[in-house]
Amino acid sequence: MSSSDQSLPLIIRHLGLQDYSTTFTAMKHLVDSRNKQSCDEIWFLEHQPVFTQGQAGKATHVLAPAEIPVVKSDRGGQVTYHGPGQITAYLMIDLKRLKLGVRDLVSLMEQAIVDCLSHWNIEANPRSDAPGVYTSEGQKIASLGLRIRKGSSYHGLNFNIDMDMEPWGRINPCGLGVEMTQMVDLIEAPPSKQMVVDKLAELLQQALGYNSHQLGDNSILVAH
């Protein structure tokens, strides 16, 4: 666990359903405008259907996108899918201030998802050879991808809760050829998305060393 500067609050924003490109632009703007007095932020949202291709992405991993757009992103990793019913959390964190390395941030994000799933008695773990979280059956339930600029992280995690899984079959997810799954298919009485968001927010907040957070609005997504 890191030790944060408690004189600066953690800002958490619940942004609802958003266009990927609009959110991507807003993330980059926030990172470019950060200074030592800028608060760390976590944005929780869902995206309208889109495939995003990371910096290491290969076009051959996008098999049959059809009507779903493919957007190039500057995060790490390969191709992934975003859609309604998937929790996306973007972490804009000053790594130097929290004395975190990139691997530290990846590990705490993975552990927060593992602990969130464990809260509902779902066993899952990260893999040393491929970022993300995988069930005990080897299915992938959460994907991670980050970019660091000016000492700050952006992008984050995607956590499958209750979504249309068909589009995953149109790509080679993360270039791994792995089967994807979601929370609703692993538990008889799945929690609401908001319950999962609230639990994941609590776990990420604790892992980053914050005792509390402040809620921010969605004005961050105003076009720049």
Q: What's the layout of helices and strands?
A:
Layout: E1 10-18, H1 20-32, E2 41-47, E3 50-53, E4 70-72, E5 79-82, E6 86-92, H2 95-98, H3 102-119, E7 124-127, E8 130-135, E9 140-149, E10 152-160, H4 193-207, E11 213-216
Parallel strand pairs: 1-2, 1-11, 3-4
Antiparallel strand pairs: 2-6, 3-5, 6-10, 7-8, 8-9, 9-10
List the defining traits of the structure above:
3-stranded mixed sheet; 224 residues; alpha/beta; single chain; 8-stranded mixed sheet; BirA Bifunctional Protein, domain 2
Characterization of this structure:
With 224 residues, the chain is an alpha/beta fold. The chain has one domain (10-209): BirA Bifunctional Protein, domain 2, CATH 3.30.930.10. 22% of the residues lie in helices and 30% in strands. The chain is built from four helices and eleven strands; from the N terminus they run E-H-E-E-E-E-E-H-H-E-E-E-E-H-E. A hairpin with a 2-residue loop joins strand 7 and strand 8. The longest helix has 18 residues, at 102-119.
**Order of strands in the sheet with most strands:** 7-8-9-10-6-2-1-11
What is the CATH level 1 assignment?
Alpha Beta
What's the number of extended β-strand segments? 11
Q: Strand count, sense and closure of the main sheet?
A: 8 strands, mixed
Structural class of the helices, strands and pairings? Answer: alpha/beta
Structural shape: globular
Number of helices: 4
Order of helices and strands: EHEEEEEHHEEEEHE
- Given as residue ranges, the uncertain stretches (5+ residues, pLDDT < 50) are 1-5
Helix content: 10-25%
How many angstroms does the end-to-end distance come to?
34 Å
What count of domains describes the coordinates? 1
Report the average pLDDT across residues: 92
The CATH topology assignment is: BirA Bifunctional Protein, domain 2
The radius of gyration is: 16 Å
Strand content: 25-35%
Corresponding CATH architecture: 2-Layer Sandwich
